[in-house]
Design brief:
By secondary structure, this protein is an alpha/beta fold. It folds into 2 domains: 8-42 and 283-389, Aspartate Aminotransferase, domain 1, CATH 3.90.1150.10; 46-278, Type I PLP-dependent aspartate aminotransferase-like (Major domain) (Aspartate Aminotransferase, domain 2). It has 13 helices and 14 strands. A hairpin with a 4-residue loop joins strand 4 (136-143) and strand 5. Helix 5 (97-109) runs parallel beside helix 6 (126-132), helix 5 packs across helix 9 and helix 11 (283-306) runs parallel beside helix 13 (372-393). The protein is globular. The model has no long low-confidence stretch (mean pLDDT 96). It binds glutamine. Glutamine binds at residues 16, 18-19, 35-36, 123, 172.
Length: 394
C-alpha cells in the first residue's frame, strides 16, 4: 500500500455530521435546525468591541494563552458566579473555540492506553479526541426520557486504566442538566480512582425551568482534578469567532498551553477585547437570553408535539431530541435525509451522538437557537410531513 495516505488512526474516526447537514440544508433550501448556531444577531456591544479592536490594530498574534485582560475577565466572571478561586495567569488558556480547548485538554492529559469515560449520547468530538491521544473511549449510556445514567454501570466503567471522564452539562444533544447529586457521584468516583474530570460547560448560561448549572470544579475535592472548557460561542451567539477557553488546575495548564501553541498559536486577537466586552454585559443580558431560549424551547416542543414527534423536554442547552422510531424508516439517517430533502427541515441524526450507531435509539436532534420566524417556517413545512405520514399510515 502506498505510504501517501491518511494516517491509520483516522480510520476509526467518523466524519463530522454537523457541517454535512448544514451543506444539505443549503442544497435543498431547507430550514436549518441541524448545526447548533443562532440565526439571530450577536449583542451590539460585543460586535462593536470586535470592530474597534480591528480598527485599533489589534491584528497581530495575541499572547498564546490569551490577553491578560481577557483571561482576567474569564477568571473574575467564573469566580464571581461559582465561588471557585482562580489565578488567571496559572489557570486560564484562551483557545480557538471550546472544541480546541477540549482537544488540547484531552491530548495533553491522556496517554496511549488510558481509558476515557464518556456519557452517551455525546457531543461528537470527545471520542475522536480521546482516540487521537491514543486513549480508549468507554461509553456509559444515558436513557430517555430524563437521560439518567445507571449508577452501577458508571461504577463498573471505572478501572485502574481510567484516566479521565468527560462530562457535558448542560448536555448536547439531550439538554440534560446534571443534578448536584449526579455530579457528586461522579466526583466521588473520580477521587476514589484518581481520575481527571474534563467538563464541557459551553452551555452553562442556558438553563431552563429553574435548573441551576453546577460546575464540576466547584464540588468538594474537584478543583484540583477538573479541567473546565467554555467559551463565547453559545452565550453570545458568536459561534464563528472560535473563542473558547480551558480552566485548569495549575499543574495541567503548561501542557494545555504547549499543545494550544503548537495547534493554533493563539485565538484571533480582536476577539479577546470583544470577549472582555461580552463578559462585562449586565446580568439582564443573561436573564433576557435565558427567557428567550426558554420561550423558543416551548415553541419547539409545541411544534414537535403537534407534528406527532415524541420529544424529550430539555432542561438546558438549545437542542431537542425526538424519537422517530415509529415513522417506518430504516435508520435515523434515512429519516433525516427524507426530512431535509422532501420536507425542507434539516436536523442531525441522533445516532451520530452514539459510538455504536446500530444500537442507538432512532432519534433526531432539532436545534432551536433560531429566530421565531425560522421556527414558524419549520412548523409550516412539517405540515407536509404530517400529511405524508397520514397518507402512509392510512
Ligand atoms: N456545537 C454545535 C452542534 O452541536 C456545532 C458543532 C460543529 O459544527 N462541529 O451542532
Amino acid at each position: 500500500m502506498s505510504r501517501i495516505r491518511s494516517a491509520r488512526r483516522l480510520a476509526s474516526i467518523a466524519d463530522s455530521v454537523f457541517g454535512e447537514m448544514t451543506r444539505l440544508a443549503r442544497l435543498h433550501n431547507a430550514v436549518n435546525l441541524s448545526q447548533g448556531f443562532p440565526d439571530f444577531e450577536a449583542p451590539q456591544a460585543v460586535k462593536d468591541a470586535a470592530c474597534a479592536a480591528i480598527q485599533a490594530e489589534q491584528n497581530q498574534y495575541a499572547p498564546p494563552s490569551g490577553t491578560k485582560a481577557f483571561r482576567d475577565a474569564i477568571a473574575a466572571d467564573y469566580s464571581r458566579r461559582y465561588g471557585v478561586r482562580l489565578v488567571a495567569d496559572e489557570q486560564v488558556t484562551v483557545c480557538c473555540g471550546s472544541t480546541e480547548a477540549m482537544l488540547a485538554s484531552i491530548m495533553s492529559c491522556i496517554d496511549p492506553g488510558d481509558e476515557v469515560i464518556i456519557f452517551e449520547p455525546f457531543y461528537e468530538n470527545y471520542g475522536p479526541d480521546a482516540m487521537l491521544a491514543g486513549g480508549e473511549p468507554k461509553y456509559v449510556r444515558m436513557h430517555a426520557p430524563d437521560w439518567h445514567f445507571d449508577e452501577a454501570e458508571l461504577r463498573r466503567a471505572f478501572t485502574n486504566r481510567t484516566r479521565a471522564i468527560v462530562i457535558n452539562s448542560p448536555n448536547n444533544p439531550t439538554g440534560k442538566v446534571f443534578s448536584r447529586d449526579e455530579l457528586q457521584v461522579i466526583a466521588e468516583l473520580c477521587q476514589q480512582w484518581d481520575v481527571l474530570a474534563i467538563s464541557d460547560e459551553i452551555y452553562e448560561r442556558i438553563v431552563y425551568d429553574g435548573h441551576a448549572h453546577v460546575p464540576v470544579a466547584s464540588l468538594p475535592g474537584m478543583a484540583d482534578r477538573t479541567i473546565t472548557t467554555g467559551g463565547l460561542s453559545k452565550t453570545f451567539s458568536v459561534t464563528g469567532w472560535r473563542i473558547g477557553w480551558a480552566i485548569s488546575p495549575p499543574a495541567l495548564t503548561g501542557g494545555i498551553r504547549k499543545l494550544h501553541d503548537f495547534i493554533t498559536v493563539a485565538a484571533p486577537t480582536p476577539f479577546h477585547d470583544a470577549g472582555v466586552a461580552a463578559l462585562s454585559l449586565p446580568d439582564t443580558y443573561y436573564s433576557g437570553m435565558r427567557a428567550d431560549y426558554q420561550r423558543k424551547r416551548d415553541l419547539m416542543m409545541d411544534i414537535l408535539g403537534r407534528h406527532g414527534f415524541t420529544a424529550y423536554r430539555p432542561g438546558g442547552a438549545y437542542y431537542v431530541i425526538a424519537d422517530v422510531s415509529r415513522f417506518g424508516f430504516d435508520s435515523d439517517f434515512d429519516f433525516a435525509r427524507y426530512l431535509v430533502r422532501d420536507v425542507g427541515v434539516a436536523t442531525v441524526p441522533g445516532s451520530s451522538f452514539y459510538a455504536g450507531p446500530a444500537s442507538a435509539p432512532k432519534t433526531i436532534r432539532f436545534c432551536f437557537s433560531k429566530r421565531d420566524d425560522t421556527l414558524h417556517e419549520a412548523d409550516r413545512r412539517l405540515v407536509n410531513f404530517t400529511k405524508a405520514r397520514g397518507t402512509d399510515t392510512a
